[in-house]
């Protein structure tokens, strides 16, 4: 759902479609369960619009993420 991954995903989708490749692209989406609503909507829209060529793996597991929003802790656990 980020800028870099969104651009890369769209470039890959465009390449597969332009070259009529008969293969699916595997997409691994890590769900923090705390993203902005517009980010969730964007991810859902892109995945739904291209479901014919995408094999989607949505993952929501406990993990540790770096944060810059706290002066006291370097990490937070989104789950």
Automatic annotation (TrEMBL):
Query: Which InterPro entries does this entry report, sorted A to Z?
Result: Rossmann-like_a/b/a_fold
| Gene Ontology MF terms in the entry | transferase activity
> What's in the keyword line of the UniProt record?
Transferase
Q: Provide the GO biological process annotations.
A: cellular response to oxygen levels
The protein's matches in Gene3D superfamilies, at most eight in alphabetical order, are given as: HUPs (3.40.50.620)
Q: Classify the source by domain of life.
A: Bacteria
Family matches, as PANTHER family: 3'-PHOSPHOADENOSINE 5'-PHOSPHOSULFATE SULFOTRANSFERASE (PAPS REDUCTASE)_FAD SYNTHETASE, TRANSCRIPTIONAL REGULATOR-RELATED
The protein's name: Phosphoadenosine phosphosulfate sulfurtransferase
């Amino acid at each position: 759902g980020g800028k870099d991954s969104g651009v890369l995903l769209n470039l890959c989708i465009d390449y597969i479609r332009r070259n009529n490749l008969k293969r699916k692209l595997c997409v691994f989406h890590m769900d923090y369960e705390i993203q902005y609503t517009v980010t969730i909507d964007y991810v859902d829209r892109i995945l739904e619009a291209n479901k014919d060529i995408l094999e989607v793996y949505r993952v929501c597991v406990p993990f540790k993420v770096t944060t810059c929003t706290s002066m006291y802790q370097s990490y937070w656990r989104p789950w």
